Amino acid sequence: MGWDQVLAQVGVAGAAVAAFAWVARSWITSSFEKGIETHKAQLRREVDVAIERLRLHDPARTEVHKRLFVSSGSELTQKILLVICERQPRR
Predict the structure, then answer these.
(1) Nearest residue to 54 (alpha-carbon basis) of 41, 68, 40
(2) Residue 34 lies in a domain
(3) What is the DSSP code (8-state) at residue 67?
(4) Residue 88 has what DSSP assignment?
(5) What residues have CB less than 8 Å from 36, skipping those under 6 apart?
(6) Are residues 40 and 64 in the same domain?
(7) Do residues 11 and 37 both lie within one domain?
(8) How many C-beta atoms surround the C-beta of residue 69 within 10 A?
(9) What does each of the 91 residues of the chain score in pLDDT, given as a tens digit?
(10) Is residue 52 part of a domain?
(11) Looking at the domain assignment, is residue 70 inside a domain?
(12) Which candidate among 3, 24, 64, 71 keeps its CA 20 to 30 Å from the CA of 9?
């Protein structure tokens, strides 16, 4: 067996390993993305239920909480708005 045959076999093996790694990575990424979307949908349902409960309990603060939990992107912004809401006197 010559060096050219050894290099050809190593090249084929390397290509096979690279193809397997790509397929495995794609499958894992797809699984995580599906899990994340499911989790986001569940969180959205929980937030909607919490907003509805708040609306029934304290209608004056409902709009503030909708903005807080639905439209805010950053976690820090949500915490700041939550503290502001909690410190406001109830009407």
Answers:
(1) 68
(2) yes
(3) I
(4) S
(5) none
(6) no
(7) yes
(8) 19
(9) 788 888 888 889 999 999 999 999 999 988 888 888 888 888 888 888 877 777 777 666 666 666 666 555 567 666 776 777 676 665 5
(10) no
(11) yes
(12) 24
Same domain, residue pair 12 and 35: yes
> Residue 75, by phi and psi: left (phi above 0), alpha (psi -120 to 50) or beta?
alpha
State the alpha helices, DSSP H only, in 1-91: 3-57, 59-66, 75-87
**pTM for the full model?**
0.43
Q: Which two tokens stand for residue 50?
A: 């919490």
User: What's the residue count for the chain?
Assistant: 91
Domain that holds residue 39: 1-45
Q: Which two tokens stand for residue 58?
A: 């304290």
Contact (Cβ atoms closer than 8 angstroms) between residue 73 and residue 86: no
**Residue bearing tokens 């909480």:** 65
**Residue 86 CB-density burial (10 A; 0-12 exposed, 13-18 middle, 19+ buried):** exposed
Number of domains in the chain: 2
The CA distances from residue 79 to 11, 68, 84, in Å, are 54, 9, 9
